[in-house]
Write a structure and sequence with these properties.
This protein is α/β, with parallel strands linked by helices and about 160 residues long. The protein is about 35% helix and about 25% strand. The chain is globular. InterPro entries: Glyco_trans_4-like_N.
């Protein structure tokens, strides 16, 4: 099975989501083909890499402003459409909005999302809740890391898991 994970940041960046995606990728790569699509947050990182059998594609966004970054990401995904088409499952970790355009053209492709946490703003902006709700409705299932996500974002989780701070 070909699985593509989408995550804003990935190894060698340090963080909870990064570690979660790395560990689950290492475990799944023993039986499946795993590809990671992430941002190139540091220009010294290669755009394409293979680490322990996991293919990593980094979207070059170094120097791109936050207001135009999503357009750069969507343009990159458009150019690499074949990576998404070849996957059996597309799974976004918090960045399901990366898949919005793809899902419009491929509504029956199996997609999933994991909601890892809170964007550190309180009260939670309505825009953030709308993006989460759209992600939930467009995906085939979602995993919430913690019960609070269902409560504060009005999300109906397919599965709840727990992490650590």
């Amino acid at each position: 099975m070909n699985v593509v994970f989408f995550t804003r940041l990935y190894y060698p960046h340090i963080g909870g989501v990064e570690k979660h995606v790395q560990k689950i990728s290492e475990t799944l790569s023993q039986k499946h083909n795993i590809t990671i699509i992430t941002e190139q947050y540091d220009s010294s990182l290669p755009l394409v890499e293979n680490l322990s059998g996991i293919k990593i594609f980094r979207i070059p966004v170094v120097g791109v402003g936050e207001s135009t970054k999503k357009w750069a990401i969507w343009a990159w995904l458009w150019k690499h459409w074949n990576l998404l088409d070849q996957a059996d499952i597309l799974h976004a970790h918090d960045v399901y909005f990366w898949l919005f355009i793809y899902k419009f053209f491929r509504p029956f492709k199996k997609t999933y999302v994991t909601f890892h946490g809170w964007e550190t703003q309180y009260p939670i902006p309505l825009k953030n809740k709308i993006i989460r709700k759209a992600s939930e409705l467009l995906s085939d299932g979602n995993i919430c890391v913690g019960d609070f996500i269902a409560k504060w974002y009005d999300t109906k989780p397919t599965l709840v898991t727990y992490g650590a701070v």
